[in-house]
Amino acid sequence: MLKLLRIFLVSLQLIVSLNLISGDNLRVDADYCVYKYNESSLIELYYCFYTSDLTLHKLENESFEIAGLLDVTIKDNDSKTIVEKSYRIPFEIRDTSAFAKEQKLLGQLNIILKPSTYKLMLKAKDYYDTSKFSIIEQNIEVSGFDTDSLRSSSLQICSDIEKSNDLNSVFYKNGLEVTPNPSKLFGNNMPSLFYYIEFYNLKKISTNFYKVSFQISKDDQIVNNFTNSYTVKGNTKGEFGKIDISKLNTGKYKLLLSIKDSLNFLNYETNNYFWVYNSNIDTSGISDEYGLSEYPNMSEKLVNDEIDKIK
Fold first, then answer.
1. What angle do CA 245, 294, 57 make, to 5 degrees?
2. For the chain, what is the mean pLDDT?
3. Which end of the chain is more exposed for a tag (fewer CB within 10 A), N or C?
4. What is the 3-state secondary structure (H, E, C) of 7-45?
């Protein structure tokens, strides 16, 4: 089981949605979603630092601080720089004895862009020890929503969704606190997956009723599916929910969403991916091809630390 966990952790690092180039042992998770914003598109960029990787620094007020530093660069197809900003992400610790090291600095950046293809580069660093860093590079597709056809935002994979009135929260959407999961990793102590999506131009559906169907598959084999039915009441709608994934085997899964009218005609579909690590279910299907890495040389204590971080 220990070997299988090591292999899975390496597999996950190689297949996350954004490409990762690591420096001196600084882990960072990142993901993004695209939403409609007036005549442009809104990019929600999600990031997560792990507090145990960051250097503890004593402040003048006798408390302590850890801090991440995130450099964001976005270039267009002509390599012209569209966005170039740095964000300092601090976390103050007043009582180190009560501080749980295995926490996350989870956040979100909102960037407005015109529809196009861009190159995104994130350089995440330890603010107090910049020799610790990770670089993430990825081409991103920014969809446009200025169309007469039925469309949707990205299908966001979340760790939690709750009703909220906190308009100042960076995770607030339409009366909800939508907590992202940039790693899109679930399992063990995270047995539930939450999802959020926005539909646009719903009145283009040919009937007054429509169905939103969800399908979870692994290696093209369907493992779960369900359908919600609605009446068309407006042109836009936010759809969210919770899925029990506690019985899924370890591996990569596809979440497919489709919209059909009452005549069962397919109007629209979109998808996203997530990963499960479930130590309570057989993991023998994981390939050994990722075994050559840092993990086979880890002590059992360090591997257990990795499990705690996943939790």
1. 85
2. 85
3. N
4. HHHHHHHHHCCCEEEECCCCCEEEEEEEEEECCEEEEEE
